[in-house]
Amino acid sequence: MPSSRTNFNILMLGKRGTGKTSMLAVLWNELKKFTSREIVYFRQDWQTSNIFGEALSQLKEMFNSPGLSIGEGIEGTDEPQDLSIELCTPNHTEPHLQLNFWDYSGGLLSAKNATEELNQKINDAHIFFIIVDAPALMELNGKFNNIRNNPDYFRNLLNNRLNEPLNVVFIVTKSEKYVRKNMKKNLFQKVKASYYELIEELRPGSNCSICIVQTLGQIVLNELLVNKDSAGREYPIYTFSKVSENSKFNPKDVTLPFQILLQNAIISSINERRASWDGLNWLRDLVGRDYDLAQALNHISEVTKVNNDSSSLVEFSDLKEII
Ligand SMILES: Nc1nc2c(ncn2[C@@H]2O[C@H](COP(=O)(O)OP(=O)(O)OP(=O)(O)O)[C@@H](O)[C@H]2O)c(=O)[nH]1
Ligand SMILES: [Mg+2]
């Protein structure tokens, strides 16, 4: 019998404070929406639940500050964290899929060489989530885009993988202000223009998309202050505020990247299983071995459609038309 569990590795990349851990914690909480006792459910180990649960309550806590002010949010991730979520279906005791999220700390990404550990993760990743900080793209004509997002650095980081088709999802965070101002199209354009080199070098067969997520929902960028470090280099400081005194934690479209990742993971799991059965796939079809995973995928697509705004996502074929 082939192994009944497929590992699917997701590498989260993005500079310090762009919102990787926040996005994962909120996503983890939103998994409930996908859970259906008859079709699909998710399991996490104790450590993963602890880390996400703690981050989530700190993010919610931000809304408890007086007036329009907001609390501090979560602390940066100093050590890279490996977190995992298992996808299970009721007819199988073993999980079908193990989704390994590698939350790489932005502070460890240096402008020069990647560490051996990071290179290993780049080699082993099945999908790359590149987190993009929206204010850096949009404010002051993108003046701080290189400091906050550094697109060339990520292009170079993926260099050794660019000779094969890749799955890349750009996830735009801190986007609430621009979504409220109907500027999604503008955001897509800016992402495409600033990550142009990477996007253009993706091989045919790659899947590339851009998702605009609102991790917190009712907190918007208030102003961007320009400060100087001891060497006289300018850097930005953001201040956010609640939309109104009654603003609540209200994430939007955070499950869009998850849908893309599950599509890839489920299809690769089905392919892996079928490849190991070689000429006997007719037998798999006869007994419906792949049926529950296919059904899970359908269910997840349906739930995503209902819970997300499809205008927050563009995929590779549409990307070509953006500019
Ligand atoms: N308004 C808004 N704020 C966000 C969003 N995502 C994250 N934040 C804020 O940004 C802060 C930093 O986010 P983190 O999730 O710690 O960023 P990170 O990418 O994990 O950073 P490192 O762990 O240092 O690499 C959080 O405490 C939140 O206050 C978002 O989508 N919208
Ligand atoms: Mg983090």
Compact description:
By secondary structure, the protein is of the alpha/beta class.
What small molecules does this complex bind? guanosine-5'-triphosphate, magnesium ion
CATH superfamily: P-loop containing nucleotide triphosphate hydrolases
Seen as an oligomer or otherwise, the chain set is single chain
Distance between the termini: 49 Å
Largest beta sheet: strand ordering: 2-3-4-1-5-6-7-10
How many β-strands, per DSSP? Answer: 10
CATH class: Alpha Beta
Helix content: 25-40%
**Helix segment count?**
13
The best one-word shape is: globular
Biggest beta sheet summary: 8 strands, mixed
Estimate the mean pLDDT confidence: 89
| Domains (count) | 1
Q: Determine the strand fraction and express it as a percent band.
A: 15-25%
Any descriptors?
single chain, 323 residues, alpha/beta, 8-stranded mixed beta sheet, two-stranded antiparallel ribbon, 21% strand, globular, binds guanosine-5'-triphosphate
Task: Describe the overall structure.
This protein has a single domain (6-322), classed as P-loop containing nucleotide triphosphate hydrolases (Rossmann fold, 3-Layer(aba) Sandwich). It is 39% helix and 21% strand. It has helices spanning 20-30, 46-61, 116-124, 134-138, 145-148, 151-157, 176-180, 184-194, 196-201, 256-277, 281-287, 291-307, 316-322, and strands spanning 6-13, 41-44, 81-88, 97-103, 127-133, 167-173, 207-212, 219-228, 234-242, 313-315. The strands form 2 sheets. Strands 2-3-4-1-5-6-7-10 form an 8-stranded mixed β-sheet, with helices on both faces. Strands 8-9 form a two-stranded antiparallel ribbon. The chain starts with 5 loop residues before the first strand and ends with a helix. 36% of the residues are buried. The site of magnesium ion (MG) has 6 residues, from α1.
